[in-house]
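Inputs:
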Amino acid sequence: MPDKPKVAFYWCASCGGCEEAVVDLAEDILKVVEAVDIVLWPVAMDFKKSDIEARPDKSIAASFINGAVRTSEQEEWARLLRRKSQVVVSFGACANSGGIPALANQFHKEDILKFVYEDCPGVDNKAKTRPQTECKDEGRTLSLPELRETVRSLDQVIEVDYYLPGCPPTPKVIMAAVQALLSGKLPPRGTVLSPDIALCEECKRKDSKPADLSLAEFKRPHQVLIDPEKCLLAQGLVCMGPATRSGCEALCPAGNMPCTGCFGPTSRVKDQGAKFVSSVFSNIAPKEEKEIDAVLDGIPDPIGSFYRYGLSKCLLRRKLN
Amino acid sequence: MTEKFEPKIVAFFCNWCTYTAADLAGVSRLKYAPNVRVIRVMCSGRVDPQFVLEAFARGADGVLLGGCHPGDCHYAEGNYKTLRRMRMLERMLRGMGIHDGRFRLEWISGAEGDKVRTVVNDMTEKVRALGPLDLPGKFKEWDKEMEELETQVNSGPAKGEAVHAR
């Protein structure tokens, strides 16, 4: 079947949830499989790097790459797929903006390795052995990819044509993207394939969001009984809705949990975390520094809360020395 | 690097108080460090934390934000919004390794031309002592770890030639 467009799926630093999301298409996946030839999908099918290398440049119609880029191997694969593909789709929050792995950008590689291989309670490693990129064993040379200093989004490594947001992208946004790709009705390059408005717009609790939040206290979800109807911000919970793109149909607020921002910001926003600070913290109640600080103390991990899926895309990119 | 380091400080001054104070400092012929680049905004509350991050990301060594004293805001509440946002922003900046006064928030009224001088001079000296932040340079430095592979993959064998995986 030489006429079917060829499609590749690849995963970088990810949890596998984005692969799961493809399977979550349920019966719809049959339509996809009918319409395309899958030439690479490490989680499900056995293809080798040499198979891809042997293909002519630009011979793959579209590559869907999920996960942040954190090792030399992931970098190499991303670059290889870019070379062989006409369209590269950044799939999911980690590929789009670093995701959970990018939280490591708050630490230095050495600190992370030292903790994981030496200091972590439960580690028994008296020789302080750490993985090496190369080692010799019975005359053979074995190699491992190198862990990079910085966790990157896919577009910080290669050019990306489209973005599918979410942790993971929902079946609805995936199908819409696949249909757009197959029909050739594509939006301008660089578009995030999800509505470009804030999540609050499609949240069922929207009507109970007060114009002036005037928050006197922040609480964490385990500390309160959450009212299932009322705006979560109005209940003092950190809900990233105002600084997050819609498209998921407000799944988390519908499940009585605050939005954590996985769809990333809208196109007008350059920095999701800073924008959240701009919109929500201007509206807390106190006016005196001490009282303001007491309210802010209710959020023990601001970076992890406001950049949970996007620290690679923070304008500062990572922690300095 | 024999040349003396001159800090670049981006200053956001509100139209009604701090910018007027800077004007006053000018007409009063007060001399102060030429290291600030003043951007006039209608209110300190107009300054989105994104502006501060972007200033750093584009090479500022320090960011100064000046507004009306609490209670004196031309728009009644703008400077309170600024204060709350910037208290949180400071926590985040600390978490990202930007601290020790590289970011500073000051209330300077239209009558305090002298305070503009004192604050600008003081901040310039403190940031000079800290040395350059140079985020654009750091971004390039961080991305050097990707150079080798980029050339290797993109200058690989021409299309269609089989290569064996390592």
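Residues 159-166 of chain B have pLDDT under 50 and may be disordered. Flag for discussion at group meeting.
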